[in-house]
Amino acid sequence: MKKTGTIIAIVCIFYTVCFASDECFRTLANNIDERYIELSDECILKLKELIVKGKDNDQKIQALRALQKSKVRSDINFFKDILLSVHSITVQQMVIEILSDMRDKKVLPVIIEFLSSPFFSVRESVILALKKNGDDRMYPYIIRLSKSDEVIHRIYALEALSHLYDNRFYEIIVRLLQDTNKSVRYFALDCVEHNEIIAALPYVRSIASGDENAEVRVKAINVLASLNDKAGYYIFVRALSDYSDLVRDAAVDALSAFMSKESIIYLSRQLLTESEVYIKRKIIKALITAKNAGDMRGLQHIIHDEQNKSLRIYAVYALGVIRDERTLPLIIASLADEDFRVRAEAAYALSQFKGKKAVVPLLEYYIKEDEPYVKTAMIFSLKKICDPGSLHKLFEFYTQEQDLVLKMILRSTIQHILTTNIRQY
Q1: Could you tell me the pTM of the whole model?
Q2: What is the pLDDT of residue 34?
Q3: Which regions in the chain score pLDDT beneath 50?
């Protein structure tokens, strides 16, 4: 009997609690959009318990929004207790935001400890809160983090300084740029870039030139380029011969931004020694953008010696876009390439030029060509050049051509040249 009575008592308590909880959540549902919500002490405790012990994050957030509009909205200790009791990242973020909105100096000691949280989104919420409230008492804590023996704490300090930096912390940044840990140096570079700390550029140049870690050298080169450091120019040039393709790639990007004749010369010469296809492609793209072949030996090397066929095609295409008459012999020689796609691209490239120098090679190689795809490209190039001097040969081709498709294209080309160049009545 005694055992039965205990069970009945527990059941009654359970239903009473559930009823109270239901009443509380009905209040939330009806009043969630209001500026102030009247919640009983019992309801407030239930919501707090839900936030701390519940499983559903959406319910926790809803409960926090309600508490933010209730009579405890300015109670620092109430929300501090929640912050220290929960493990949900989303809840911690929101509680930090609520505390920050109170704009009370007592909040700082509560949230500052979460600057070393293992979760980025929580640290970010603290940083934004500190930035919004602008309390200088945060700096000693950040300085302690920057001097920690723990690498991760030094990184967290840099993460905070990226958003909270001022000139008082210049020496800290310089020290961390010379840190023994590569990740710390990397994040210090990121802080320099984010805050545009021009005074630190000599240290960045030193890292770009000689850091033992390739990823850190890449980051330093990117920072110098991002901050338009003219003194870093020859560091970029030297980096073109770095053993790491990552560094060479960063150097190509940095030099491409200058678009000077000198930088184009350096980039084009890199094609003579570069081993990575993706870097060669990037260099050719830079030459196309600049519409300058630079040192022509670079593209010549790609066209004659490159094993990657698509890169050879791209190099011939580049010559057509650049339209430098000094490259005509190189384009003409490509009309005899073993790959028909290279020959077709060379035919198209010649269409970017005018006169006998472009027309004669197209006519001569048309006779030797067996691939219809390439012959078609040659005819279309002659059509685009639209030189009446090509009419006699084109008519010969038309009368001798056995391929009906090519014959039709030749007829259309002859008609186009005649219509364009001869007066009609």
Answers
A1: 0.81
A2: 63
A3: 1-3, 5-20
